[in-house]
Amino acid sequence: MSYTGLTVATEADTCRTYVVPKLYAAGWTDEQIKEQRTFTDGRILVQGRNAKRGIPKRVDYLLYTRRDYPIAVVEAKAEDYSPHQGLQQAIEYAIALDLPFAYSTNGKGIVEHDMLTGEEREMDSFPSQAELVGRFRAHRGLPPEVEDKLLTPYHLGDRIPRYYQTIAIQRAAEAILKGQKRILLTLATGTGKTEIAFQIAWKLWQIKWNLGGTSRKPRILFLADRSILVDDPKDKAFAPFGDARHKIQGGVVNTSREMYFATYQALAEDESRPGLYRQYPPDFFDLIIVDEAHRGSASEESSWRDILTHFGAATQLGMTATPLREDTRDTYAYYGQPIYTYSLAQGIQDGFLAPYQVRRVVTDVDAVGWRPTPGQKDVYGREIPDGEYGTKDFEASLSLIPRTEAVAKHLVEYLKATDIMAKTIVFCVDQEHALQMRSAIARLLPDQIKQYPDFVVRVVADEGDIGKGYLASFQDVEKESPVILTSSKLLSTGVDAPMVKNVVLFRVVGTMAEFKQIIGRGTRVREDYGKLFFTIIDYTGTATQKFADPDFDGEPIDTIEIPIEVTANPDEPEQVEPQPKPTGRDSLKDDESSEPRKLVIRNGFTVQILHETVQELDARGKQLRTIEFTSYAAEQVRSLYMTAEDLKNHWADPRERQTIIRALEEQGVALEHLEQVMDMPDSDPFDLLCHIAFNAPRKTRKQRADNAKSKKKEAFATYGPLAQTILDQLLDQYADHGIDEMKPGSEVFKVLPATRHMNLNEVGRAFGGLPKLRQVLDELPGLIYT
Hints:
With 786 residues, this protein is of the alpha/beta class. The protein is 35% helix and 17% strand. The chain contains 27 helices and 30 strands. It starts with a strand and ends with a helix.
């Protein structure tokens, strides 16, 4: 690193001069030493409608025993630091990467933290690869043959597992090889559970593992509850298995393959056929991978449980996105505690999952309820029973057409104001509601419908292959339409649509499991297509309630509450499809389902706007509260420093200043956005932070520069006229462009009038030599921030 051309000791110098030679001396080879390895993508920081990446986590060195298997992390600091300086960071990285050894060094001294025993010790040289492997194996106590099988390489190609996927694969493979019969992995939606399942299956298949100890390759069943959850993995992720793949369907039994795929429905017993699973011997499968394991398969009352019981001799690996809750208790009772958990919050923090905004939209009928007038009838002429109807009743037993139209109008206006081509999924109460919503939206977008006839479509079970075709086009990142899908529950899980930018809740979501699955429709990141975050638009209050649940672990960027207004026209003619008018005692019955037909009301009431609020999670990340961005930013500043003086002492140092900026960005506070919000472009970011956090006076950079000029004559009195002129021009440059003009590596001397034609040595002579110039440049920021 250079400081306006002046060299200073850096971590890179330590690495080149000391660390690598010491690793070589301990016997580590270039193939085993991986330098500057990034293992997260960097949290996505969203300010308004803009987003950018934060700084990814990166280790100085990873030490590998084999191609895919790191065993230690090494953090290097400049030689003028203590060798202990990077130890906390090394430990943090070792925990995240599930590594047994962490090292910190300044090049001359080395500190080891043994994650297996908790012991720390100072040393002069690094341990050898053989020593670390021996210590690790002795601690785990695994037989050599198991250790060797665990080290089987992954199937790579262009599919390099992320760090948490590697941990999940390794832990699952180890548990299976040790003979554990029931295993559970809990990973948030969008984190690649299918890829993890493939790598586990591939590893076991390659080493010819099976519970019987024979030499044949194991027979593996990938089991799910929906065809899309089976077909997509079979055709894509598991394609390397080639002809070993087979999908069980159509009542046909095939016993000649090794990698099987099936839905529960294809195997289960029903009214029309006996259970196909009984035609396979109980010990036929060696491993069963159960995708979306929380969806009923482990429940004792579930008919699908019989399938797992029949194949009870097999190792059964459950995969779920839902942590332990009352509604998933059967899953955890069946499989046991997860051997690895990677949460939604962690995925967002690492930058692998998209963060989200929450917009809560409130109609008055949802806020205070709706009650019919005495004798009021619906569009079919049926009298509406008296009572107070609320959000849970709407579209379940009572269809309020003006409410649907109001929501459609608000959604269309939002899309037009943001991005009309943003992929959007609208979750409705049922298929009929999804049809009503689709029609209401389509009427408001004639220009878009003219250009794209499939701009807004309904994708539900009733649509059959047509709906599947729409869904496939919606998922294709290269296809512009469909843009808006309306559905009920069909798309709540298992649909990989990476370009979804809006998830719309127009139905109450009961369980946290279902809520997380729905939210997961938007968490995919497609940075190459400009998809870095998404918006949850909540018309029922579901999202706000779920965020307040202590079991929810994904932080929203912010929550905006927006009531809306629509007035139904009493004179507007009814616009419902012609249907036979029910009569008699069956007037509220559906002819096909024998379920009560919903009452349908169109006219005679209005929907009005109420108010708007902006909400954030509190400091504990548990409750939503009304808050402004500047207040949130102030809290983050005070969490770092208690006083303005303390902040100033660290801000003046360029290295510490960058650390502060990174720390704030990781908490969602970008200085550029703060400048926009506060509308103070001429102020130093330091003054913005001090003003919001410590109520300090507002100052401009010019005021600081003028103040520094008045004091520099005393502080730098020993320097001559040329040096004084250079200092004045440096301060003018700061006033115009900010403190970065004096950061390490700046080319500032090439633009100053007094020095633009001078080389660095000539500039140094004006101050009595380069060491004196470096000293002045170190002291000048302190003068600016006095």
